[in-house]
Amino acid sequence: MNMMRKTTFTIAVCTLILPSLLSEKALAENLSSQWILDQYTKSRLFVGGYDKENKTLHLGWQVSLKDGWKTYWRTPGEAGLPPRWTWKDTDNVHAITVNWPKPELLHIFGMDTYTYHNEVILPIDVEVADIEKAFTIGLDLQYLICSDICIPQEGKYHLDVSQLENIKISRFQKAQLDRYRDLVPVKISGKDFVIKPDRDQENMLTIHLPEYIGDVENIIVEGSDEILFGRATSNRDGLFSLHHNGKQSLEGQELTLTLLLKDGRAKETKIIVRP
What we know:
CATH topology of the largest domain: Immunoglobulin-like
Strand content: over 45%
Number of strands: 19
CATH architecture of the largest domain: Sandwich
Shape: globular
Order of helices and strands: HEEEEEEEEEEEHEEEEEEEE
Number of helices: 2
Structural class: mainly beta
CATH class of the largest domain: Mainly Beta
């Protein structure tokens, strides 16, 4: 008799809890696009956070790569191609910002490239226009993967969130995204940086860093798409130099510097090239 009562009680509890668990699971599943699978990759677009105060959804584009394959950072370096983003079928979207975790420097065949291997999640901040309305977004993403050969890839992703007010974020998806959000370089002021042309060497820039930055292992420099910058080399404490292929003077141009520190952190700043 006692056994029958325990069984009845267990069934009753499961009857009450199971629908709630299934409902939460269904809500979480709706916050991810379908996985796109092929011989070399699997990828998706998912929701990993929501900042109600700032009306911002934190999305992640996730790609897992077969062993030995890599894909490229926003500036690939001396070889490769960056991802190309096309946002479409958006509704209730005010602004979109793609963030880039620090890349890995890969030196191969005499060239420096900036890549990701195994897996990467690119954090994407989407500011919604109205938190009381549904949210819809589509992404057509073209990207390149390379091993011994290179293969262009394309993924089409779609997300549709019907209720932002009561959104249920998967704790697993949040943890996945937060891990890579922590790897995005911290933006800092460049007011104490000095970058200017080297008067003694053509197509050479010198960069002087303030002491408080810390031990820098590498500096990635970005400018216009037409200009390619080489790897920065350290001459002495806080002083770096690098070549570029620009045909015109860079004086007055704004450059983006990503500082890869020896302790694993990364910082980013924008500065103007001085005369």
